[in-house]
Structures are given as C-alpha cells and as structure tokens.
Design brief:
The chain contains 5 helices and no strands. The protein is mainly α.
C-alpha cells in the first residue's frame, strides 16, 4: 500500500473553505494565506469556547515550517499539519457555525 503524499494543495483543497468561513475571508489559494487564516481562525474558535484551537495553532506552525523546508521536510511538515487538521476542522467549524447561528 502506498502512502498518500500530503501537499500544500491537498491541505488547501480539504480545509480552506472551513477555515475561511471562520476567518471571514475568501478561501485561501496558497499556503501562506492558509497559514494566515488558521492564525485568524484559532482565536475565534477559542473565543467561542470550542476545544481544538491549540491544534490549529500547531498546524499553522507546521505549515510555516513547510514554507521554508527543503528535502524530505517539505513532505514531513504538511503531513504533520494534516494529522492535526483532519480530525478537527470539519467538526469545530460545524460547532462554530451552530454557536454563531448559521
């Protein structure tokens, strides 16, 4: 079995819409914008009393590292971010939508 390679494009495709909703911005189209939106969204989740914002902050840090990474680290950091975002983003965004009345 071959492991799926997680790229910046994969992360943007999977998470940009949800994160952009909370950041109140158009969906990110590049990694730098996704990082910025994660940094904006995390405190909004926290203010709404939603657990998991710390993992979003950590994922943002991993993606920031990915911007500067070379070699195998270019694959390592997006994978680590994905491992944090995958079980979290959809659920916390749905909870946020419910809390703010959408």
């Amino acid at each position: 079995m071959t492991a799926t390679v997680i790229t910046a494009e994969t992360l943007i495709h999977r998470y940009a819409d949800d994160i952009a909703y909370v950041a109140k911005q158009p969906p990110a189209t590049d990694l730098a914008a996704l990082i910025s939106q994660l940094d904006t969204a995390a405190p909004r989740y926290e203010a709404a009393g939603i657990n998991g914002h710390e993992d979003l902050e950590t994922a943002s840090s991993y993606l920031d590292e990915a911007l500067r990474a070379t070699g195998t680290d270019r694959e390592f950091f997006p994978r680590r971010a994905h491992d944090l975002l995958r079980p979290l983003v959809s659920d916390v965004t749905q909870e946020y939508r419910t809390d703010v009345g959408d």
